[in-house]
Structure of 3alpha(Or 20beta)-hydroxysteroid dehydrogenase:
Amino acid sequence: MGRVSGKVVIITGGARGMGASHARKLVNEGAKVVITDILDQEGQALANELGENALFIKHDVTNAADWEHVVTETEATFGPVNVLVNNAGIAPTSPIESTSEEVYRKVIDINQVAVFLGMKVVLPSMRKTNNGSIVNISSLSGLIGGKDQVGYVASKFAVRGMTKVAALEFAEYGIRVNSIHPGFIETPMIRQENTEELTKMFEKIIPLGRIARPEEVSNLVLFLASDESSYSTGAEFVIDGGLYAQ
């Protein structure tokens, strides 16, 4: 038996990077996983790879009607939702002075408003299970500041706070809500923003001496999705190789 056998999971931003890693891990551990993303070709290819226990739905996470559609299709295909992993996110970089209002609002919509919508819309379905888990992917930047990341830092601090509010409100329904705070992870987002030289610089300042593999974050997602974390809610789980400890 897998660690999440029979659980129905929604993962946003699941077509590639950390989201795809989470989907593979949870399917391998027995879950039925709905992968959502705007990247429809990559998302469908991943669902095809994972087989009958995976479904891809194209999904704009900033759109409430899209969220309703995802939950309806999930219930119709697999049943009520046990686990939501709010993973979708973007991380453009620029100083405050040169950050446009349009870019700032886009980051807030995708990284913060989408998490609110996901938790709100999934709640009626998850209440049916009396054993739900919401995993909100924040960031190390949701705990500390960072230059040239005003929208990203603001949104990830917000996710941290929203997680605590939801944990208090949803506890009566047996639903746990926690946030994960990754540091530097080997994903397409990191590679497109940073050169190999910058990656080596990151490795020099990380106490464990390397950036993380997506699978290492997926192991934490699996723990929080499973009943092994049954008494953890409203908590922050940092996975950063020791950066925050410095």
